[in-house]
Amino acid sequence: MKKRRSGAPLLFLLLLVLLLFSELTIQQQQQQQPLSSPAEFVALLRLRSSLGIRSREWPIKADPCSLWQGVKCENGSVAGINISGFRRTRVGRENPQFSVDALPNFTLLTSFNASSFSLPGQIPNWFGQRLGSLQVLDLRSCGIIGIVPPSLGNLTNLTSLYLADNRLNGSIPSSFASLKNLSTLDISSNSLSGPIPPGIGNLSGLQHLNLSGNKLSGSLPGQLGDLGNLVNLDLSFNDLSGSVPSNLRGLRSLQRMLLGNNLLSGPLPDDLFSNIGQLQVVVLRNNSFSGSVPGLLWSVPGLVLLDISSNNFTGLLPDTGSNHTAAVLNISQNMFYGNLTQLLKGFSLIDLSENYFEGKIPDLAGTNLSLGNNCLQNVSDQRTAGECTSFYAERGLVFDNFGQPPETGKKSNRKLIILVGVLGGLGLVAFLSLALLFICIRKRGSTNQRAVVAGPASASGTPLPSGTSVDFSNIGDAYTYQQLLQATNEFNDSNLIKHGHSGDLFRGILDGGIPVVIKKVDLRSIRKEVYPVELDFFSKVSHGRFVPFLGHCLESENEKFLVYKYMPNEDLASSLFRKTSSEDDTLQSLDWIKRLKIAVGAAEGLSYLHHECSPPLVHRDVQASSILLDDKYEVRLGSLTEVSAQGDTHQSRISRLLRLQQFFYSKLCI
């Protein structure tokens, strides 16, 4: 006789499902419960009017809790407002302001997200006094100006604070030390100055700290080492100086350390990486670090990117293998020497250029190597034997000149003859240069009468003297302001493509139906040398891999306009994953044939700048959004306002505006 199976497990599962269903039903009822507070409904209408929000997003006759986009309610009260990316009405576009005075009426408001919504003006001081329930405040890319109100330190319930990509100035408030519940602080890409407040080290729950792209100065506070839960630290593209404190070894959870493009110096502490075993990305490039690299850094098992280029590091590579896979190593422009070792086996992309490595290239190194300007055997573009011998002699070492005998006897006389010839040639060149300069000065008067007064920088990256005149009349067509107003429907927000760091970009249609992109450069908020740099570039450089420049409008004193040919496939950033036309809103990725075509096209454009221009030029702003694509996915490089001569002495100033490293490092770990 068969035993009857117990129904207890089945009954238990049934009860569990019913409980879960009841919980979900209660939550859904809470979320869909109509707005019960008349005062909050009036406040929403005031906010709708002051911000110029369209009826499409907030229909006036509908219940806000159920039918207004971005409005989240709990128990009949407004708990969250998300207007990210909304477009204003025509009236709202005419006079956009930071007008959110109705927010304090939402007593249970925990989240306010206005990212990418135009809010020109200053953050009101009452934000930190009357919005005490806020947990998330997101004001990225809103066009905000002025200082960061110290009163924001009163919002002790905040878990996430985003103020990135605005025009904020002043210092980081010390009151931020009171935000004990903060897990994310992002105030990158502004113009903040002064030191990093040591009190930030008190935010024990902080996981993501991004202060990059500002003008912060002073030393790294040792208190940052108390952030034991910190995962991402980005302090790159600032003016930070001094040495790296050994206290940072306390960042035991850190995965991304970005300190590049600062003024940091001195050796790295030997025990800096003793407790940081989860590192994936380390970027220390473009500083003045010296000494040897701590041995533990070479052997971090999960390392994906190690970039310590453009420093004064020295020493030998460790002669041990590594556990890295698909990793990138960039130690170029330092003073490393000795033989290439087994360490390279763990990296797939390697840049060792501009060091003093000697000997042969081992087979294990692979082919993804950049080795220029070293002392290697059987490799092109290396340093001279004399330069290598001198470097090694300074360190009490002997350089093996590939078995070649030292130069003696007759070669010394030959050197003397060459030296005399070179000095004589230089003298002749100097004389001719002075004569040419005298002629140019004689003709300057007539030239200045035809020229348009330019800004302080040229396409070569060398600042132009104050008052220097450059003739832009022959660069493209000269458009009138009225033509551009008509082409863009008076620069309507519906034609705005994006807010760029060198100006706002608008779509337009010129007379005859010619689609164009128009850059509006407001000289009251953007550096005055921006547009002359680009005009100067187009006056000197002509190549099919750059965005076609059509003309300009320089009538206004405070606003300048540059006109380009419209690229139907926009840029690489928007083309990598584009929504299909189907109803499911799926993302369609570029096929690999197009990706290869784009990569080759971008390389051709950069190669032209590096190798075919004299002096060689560096783009300095290569990122996905600056790689434009025409109707056949042919590359046209844009964002040319930062192009300058290779080795330019003003590199440290210009580099703060770069987005290449930030884009690459941020995408690498996604």
UniProtKB/TrEMBL annotation:
It comes from the Eukaryota. The keyword Repeat applies. The lineage of its organism: Eukaryota, Viridiplantae, Streptophyta, Embryophyta, Tracheophyta. One of its GO terms (cellular component) is membrane. InterPro entries: Kinase-like_dom_sf, Leu-rich_rpt, Leu-rich_rpt_typical-subtyp, LRR_dom_sf, PRK1-6/SRF4-like, Prot_kinase_dom, Ser-Thr/Tyr_kinase_cat_dom, Tyr_kinase_cat_dom. Its main location: membrane. The chain crosses the membrane at residues 416-441. Gene3D superfamilies: Phosphorylase Kinase, domain 1, Ribonuclease Inhibitor, Transferase(Phosphotransferase) domain 1. Keywords: Leucine-rich repeat, Membrane, Repeat, Signal, Transmembrane, Transmembrane helix. Residues 1-27 form the signal peptide. It is found in: Membrane. This is Protein kinase domain-containing protein. Residues 491-670 form the Protein kinase domain.
